[in-house]
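Our platform keeps sequence and structure together, in a single record for each protein. Because each token names a local backbone shape, the row as a whole describes the fold. One such record is reproduced below, unchanged from the form in which we store it:
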Amino acid sequence: MMLARTRLGLVALVALVGLGLLFVWRSTPHVPSSAASEVIAVVSPEGDIAPDPPAGAGDDQLPRSPAGEGCLDPLALEGGSMDLCWQAQREGRDDDPKRDFYTLRFYGTFVADEWAVLRAHLVSPDGARIEEQSPTGEVEGPCGVLAPGGFAGSSGQDARDRCGLLLGGMSGDTTRSSAEWTCQDCGASGATVRDIELRQLVSVPEGQRPSWELFADAGSRAVRPGD
């Protein structure tokens, strides 16, 4: 009888722990696996592909082309909204005779109280790859602004004033990267306009230009897409 009671107690304890973990998982914001799964734009810099600059070239001798920029139509989402723009340009100080380098900046604002995500897929040319990504790892900071601001890997925000968590990385694929924001201690702040930004430094075979597919999504507590 004592053994049966012990087993029942253990079963009850395991069940309570399981329910607790389920509650924590459901209450902790996370980006659903189905988020940002549709292409919202395909972008590429335009213009003549200038030759690499000579050694010791001054700023006025650096190639300025190809380059491009634009803003996308506002996204009205079931769980929020986003206003996004992009910039892509040739990196002028390039001393690699076999590859050219470009930067992509995918950025803007969103309104959502639980999560937001930007993704960029480097789709061409063959042999193109991401060399650096920002943000990288985890960046904690206040609710209002969470923009990486470059390839330094830090937002400059005070991590002690924790509210939002920004995650960034490539997950082993050198053609895809993302920036994912989740609310940690934001409360009912769904009307707040926040910043989000994704940057890539990419390289392509010499004399070619890159193209990207862009993805974005955002959500709130009132709307939870299925995982």
Confidence is low (pLDDT under 50) at residues 1-27, 145-162. Helices lie at 2-27. Residues 80 and 179 are 17 Å apart (CA to CA).
